[in-house]
Amino acid sequence: MSVDETAENPFTLGADDLTKLDAIREALLDPSPRRIGRLDQWGLADTYETYAEIARYSEVSLTMADGTVLDASLSVPRDLAPGQTCPAVVLPAPLINIGHRAYLGMISRWALGGYVVLAYSQRGLARSTGEIHVAGPQDVADATEVIDWLIQQDGVDGDRIGFFGSSYGAGTSLLAAAQDPRIKAVAGTSAWADLFTSLYENGTRHLKAFEALVQLFGEDRCSQEFREIIQKIRANTIDDQVGEFAAQRSPNNHLNTYNDAATPILLTTAWHETIFSVPAVIDFHNRLTGPKTLLVQVGDHGNAELPGLAGLPAKPTDMAYRWMDHHLGGSAGDGATPRFDVRSEYMFNPLSDLRHSSWDNYALPKKRFHLADAPAGQRDGQLSEGDPQAGWTRSVKATGKGTDIVVAPKLVQTGLAERMGLPHVYKTADIDRGLAAVFTTTHLPQSSRVRGELELRVTVKPQQADATIVAYLLDADPATGRAHIITHAPCSFTAEHTGQATTVAIPLQPADYVVAKGHQLQLVIDTHDPLFAQDNNTAPVFTIDITSPTDAESYLDIPLHPIDRQ
After folding, report:
1. Using the 8-state DSSP alphabet, how is residue 103 labeled?
2. Do 247 and 164 belong to one domain?
3. Are 226 and 133 in contact (CB under 8 A)?
4. Same domain, 353 and 375
């Protein structure tokens, strides 16, 4: 995915990417010297010349029991001996308008590793017919029918089937594995674990991400059930129907099935993920008892695996090849045995590579920083270790507009810039203190690492219903006034909280971040972020009091330790 500031849809592939995929497809369908020679401009001619010698590619239509036709492609090794079988990998499509063709760049690598490859677009996506069910029971039933068809093909070993998917394809893969024991291994990149939490975090809708996904699905192609859910989320009617819809599509509700079968599961996510809940993915990984690996990288949804989907080196896909080789017996990877652990990069350094045996071993212990009022002559509150600080109140105005501190100015593309070493810069002096409360640490005496989970406890008194606060933790350089985001979380309050002081504990998104010596950590509590709500110029102005009462003092728990502490 290329960075395109003019793109309306953050998931759209750039023109160069699409041109390359078209050329690969033409060479697969017609491996003539002219078609393969066209790939030389990307250095791929030799790869696809070899592919043509060892495998054959075709595009197929899979008809489901209800008549729905799934658009698919099949790659099968050539010249198999009588009775010879191969492992197979199934690739349900990510949420992109080209469907399963997003995986074209991977097919040669799977084929060279001795796999049969079946990639398909779920119903309603790309060229597949039917309605979109969002990885619902019908999509899971389709996955079973896809396997039924696949094992009838020559050369397929029905006892060695794996599923790999990115994003939407990751969800489909995980949910299919919970229902079909023939799936012996799963690798899901940019995966989700709890769809409800991804849509509705701490009582707050993820509206911007949700609307972007709906736009990409195409609302007119969605099932009646999904269209009803779309309208309810837009209207903030989060009822039992919405909860049940999400529960049916949440892998974490199938933990017992995965654990009983010891299903090998590889998961990847990103620190700055704005689409699916990162804490839910980490919790899901931690509760799995079978073979498992978790990779957390710099960037946002789908950023890190994109080069791998295009056939280039990338940690998520390289790990997936190795994962399938180990569990299915192929040779697409580098021959090394996968490690069953937590692997990560720290923000914003995609060249970093950290390994730990478990999340508990990976995360650092938390330190408590108490929120305190501003000292005399200063405008910002304090974040300080030591004794709890009670009895202060800081009031902010909720106007329907927030400050310039936002989770991500652009969905997905802000994270992609982070992977390129260009994280968004926030100017701390420009924060409107009438719209946000700011609390700052002293200058850090040495470089330190924030690694693990964070939690904010604060007491909030909104003067109107449906109030929202958004907490951001920034790395601020006092010498320049520039800051970068470390983590965030929203929290919303209903009508019953109006005029009432309500103490809430808000888990922030986990982080792995190195703070330079002399920098400060800065907590910003704002009242609006376009990621979670639509802009509203007509919203009446009202006050939100942020307080710290005795016996419920406000604090921020941060896993902060000197850099020499690994």
Report:
1. G
2. yes
3. yes
4. no
CA distance 333 to 320: 8
The predicted pLDDT at position 31 comes to: 96
Q: Quick one: which of 157, 171, 191, 175 has its CA closest to 328?
A: 157
Q: Are 341 and 408 contained in the same domain?
A: no
Residues 295 and 248 in one domain: yes
Asked whether residue 26 is assigned to any structural domain, the reply reads yes
Give the DSSP per-residue string, 316-351. HHHHHHHHHHHHH----S-SPPPP-SEEEEEBTEEE
Contact 459, 473 (CB under 8 A): no
In this structure, what DSSP letter does residue 498 have?
Answer: T
Omega within 30 of 0 (cis) for the link into 348? yes
pLDDT tens per residue across span 32-45 = 999 999 999 999 99
Tokens 């690694």 locate to 451
Q: Rounded distance, CA 237 to CA 105, Å?
A: 42
Q: Which amino acid is at 282?
A: I
Domain boundary among 326, 342, 361: 361
Q: In terms of domains, do 350 and 480 share one?
A: no
User: Counting Cβ atoms within 10 Å, is residue 529 exposed (0-12), middle (13-18) or buried (19+)?
Assistant: buried
Q: State the pLDDT confidence band at 268, using cuts at 50, 70 and 90.
A: very high
Which strands form 292-297's sheet, in the order they lie side by side?
A: 55-63, 69-77, 116-120, 86-92, 156-166, 183-189, 265-270, 292-297, 342-346, 349-356
Averaged pLDDT for residues 280-308? 96
| Cα-based angle 123, 292, 100 (whole degrees, multiple of 5) | 25
State the average pLDDT for the chain: 94
Residues 363 and 558: their CA atoms lie apart, in Å, by 11
Both 266 and 334 in one domain: the answer is yes
User: Residue 145, Cβ neighbours under 10 Å: how many?
Assistant: 16
Q: Under a CB-based contact definition with an 8 Å cutoff, are residues 87 and 115 in contact?
A: yes
Say how far apart CA 74 and CA 315 lie, in whole Å.
25
Are 344 and 477 contained in the same domain?
Answer: no
Under 8 Å between Cβ of 511 and 472: no
Cα-to-chain-centroid distance, residue 554: 30
* pLDDT, position 9: 55
Per the structure, how many domains does the chain have?
Answer: 2
5 lies in some domain: no
> Is residue 70 scored above 70 in pLDDT?
yes
User: How far is CA 377 from its chain centroid?
Assistant: 43
pLDDT band (50, 70, 90) for residue 457: very high
> Which pLDDT score, from 0 to 100, does residue 11 have?
60
Bridge pairing between strands 86-92 and 116-120: parallel
Q: Provide the CATH number for the domain around residue 329.
A: 3.40.50.1820
Tokens of 491: 């929290």
Q: Domain range spanning residue 511?
A: 367-562
Any idea how long the chain is?
566
* Residue 9: inside a domain: no
pTM score over 0.90: yes
